[in-house]
Design goal:
Blueprint: H1 4-33, E1 41-42, E2 55-61, H2 67-79, E3 92-100, E4 109-120, E5 125-140, E6 161-164, H3 169-190, E7 195-198, H4 204-215, E8 220-222
Parallel strand pairs: 2-3, 5-6, 7-8
Antiparallel strand pairs: 1-7, 3-4, 4-5
Helix pairs in contact: 2-3
Length: 243
């Protein structure tokens, strides 16, 4: 009978530990479900920049199946104003070597390291060379149906972790993160001023935001306005007000 208080204390400790673990899991789950923060910066080279529409992808080394990565990389180069539209314009070659291979979905967490190198094709001189790390900790979130989006990636493609709902999403997230970090480093090296992206809205707050950016000499551009021009015709959120 004298040992009962000790057992009771042990039970309380275990219960408290379980509650603490549950609380921590709940906090982590809530954090991972939060939508991505606004994508408020855009890296884009202008017509006067040395690399504007002048870069072609030379090769990608270190990946057994580089097709998806090559597609994402070329899309990123195009959006940033770097991808050469013709062979004549392709004065610079981008070479990518992965030293730590991208992980499979089963690995849930896998870091990658890639060397990005841009070479002047006329002189064979290296004009840019940087190593880029990428890491994404995938949390599997089973859902009904076929969901193909990253959930809870709080910092978008730069998020260190988030829920995934389909095979291959973790790899895609790491690929996009690597590409984005490369473009950011290249922009810093080239002195590209990243533009601030503002909502395609005309309310007082957004108007003041645009005015402040202009007054500060910070370049800005609006979000994809097409997405704002397709309002759903629900006629408002309806409810019954009487008791």
């Amino acid at each position: 009978m004298r040992l009962q208080p000790i057992y009771a204390l042990g039970a309380l400790v275990l219960a408290a530990s379980s509650l603490g673990a549950c609380a921590a899991d709940t906090v982590a789950s809530v954090r991972l479900q939060q939508p991505a923060l606004p994508a408020d910066q855009a890296a884009q080279w202008g017509p006067d920049a040395r690399l504007y529409r002048s870069v072609t992808l030379d090769y990608v080394g270190g990946l057994s199946r580089p097709t998806q990565y090559r597609r994402l990389l070329e899309e990123g180069l195009d959006r940033a104003g770097l991808l050469a539209p013709t062979s004549t314009a392709a004065r610079y070659a981008l070479q990518v070597d992965f030293l730590a291979a991208l992980g499979s979905f089963a690995d849930v967490r896998k870091d990658s390291w890639a060397e990005y190198r841009i070479i002047n094709r006329a002189t064979n001189r290296i004009v840019f060379e940087e190593g880029v790390a990428a890491s994404f900790n995938a949390h599997y979130a089973p859902t009904a149906g076929n969901a193909y989006e990253i959930l809870g990636a709080r910092r978008g493609v730069l998020a260190p972790d988030g829920f995934v709902t389909a095979y291959g999403q973790a790899d895609a997230q790491r690929m996009l993160q690597s590409i984005t970090r490369f473009v950011m480093k290249l922009g810093g090296s080239d002195g590209v001023v990243f533009a601030t992206v503002v909502p395609c809205l005309n309310n007082a707050e957004v108007t003041a935001m645009k005015g402040a950016l202009t007054a500060s000499g910070v370049p800005w551009r609006t979000d994809d306005c097409q997405a704002y021009r397709q309002p759903k015709t629900y006629g408002g959120l309806r409810f019954t007000s009487y008791q």
